[in-house]
Amino acid sequence: MTIEVDAAHAGTRLDKFLATQLPELSRSRVQLLLEEGRVTRGADIITDPALKTKEKECYRLVIPPTELTSVEAEDIALNIVYEDADLLVINKQAGLTVHPAPGNRSGTLVNALLHHCGDSLSSLGGVARPGILHRLDKDTSGLMVVAKNDVAHRRLAAQLADRSLSRTYLAIVWGVPKPAKGTITGNIGRSTKNRKKMAVVTSGGKEATTHYAVLEVLGDGTASLVECKLETGRTHQIRVHMTHIGHALIGDPAYGSPRKLPAGTTEARSVAIRGFLRQALHAVRLSFLHPSTGERLSFEAAIPKDFQTLKNHLQHLKT
Predict the structure, then answer these.
(1) 162 is catalytic
(2) How far is residue 213's CA from residue 162's CA, in Å, rounded to a whole number?
(3) I need a labelling partner for 12 at 20 to 30 A (CA). Which of 53, 66, 103, 286 fits?
(4) Distance CA 202, CA 192 (A)
(5) What residues form DSSP beta bridges with 226?
(6) CA gap 160, 90 in Å, rounded
(7) The model's pTM
(8) Closest C-alpha among 149, 136, 69 to residue 99
(9) Are the beta carbons of 14 and 46 closer than 8 angstroms?
(10) Residue tagged active-site, from 15, 137, 139, 252
């Protein structure tokens, strides 16, 4: 849809103007479309709902298909670390998408959960996301907690909000961050250059904080193994924040970039490193209070084989 601003609406907040012109969309729905980068003005992606409109400006909205109304159960293998009447903890494999979306209705973690749990999943996430409290990107491996009822969902979600639910990741990044331990802050929002990507933004976006520590220098500084702890859980947060400080995750198809390997690197080792085609990110530890008992539960997931193989190759590089 394309809408032109008339004189009567010049100077109006953009979200209010669009909601007024499109009564079938609520203001919150318009704000979500802005956040998702689905509103453009010429070649520019507009994400700021408070932007003041100007007469004769034209805004184009791309409205996605209607949300799924049903999801089929599928017999997909799950690595279940823990399960009781209230929740499951899953060690998700890389390559598994968390939830269905229009155009991608099958082969996801949700399809597998429906097969395993039947109707015993929280309904608060909606039809497409039953039980889902937080996501991992498709090609990120590691630990996730899933709620099996609405009470557990609300109590675990509250822990996400107050940050008592702890999530720790391991990442392999290019170079060695300095200082070796620190905190990255910077609001994360939709990139104004590419709506499929997120970025640290100077206006708008959502508050984001990542604590990092270098655990091991690899290949005389070619790369490093970094531990990242999240205070917030924004889309692509670790990937965006590490790229923002100049140390993109190895293999990241969206935010990474190839780096020159040391002279003398064997062809086999070079192929192995450059052939690592997912972001080197693994959710290694997860800790939270059990929603019924209040007991602190803590879990750790072993490093996946492909992640360890990449680390081994990088360890042997010499500058």
Answers:
(1) no
(2) 23
(3) 66
(4) 11
(5) 171, 214
(6) 17
(7) 0.83
(8) 136
(9) yes
(10) 137
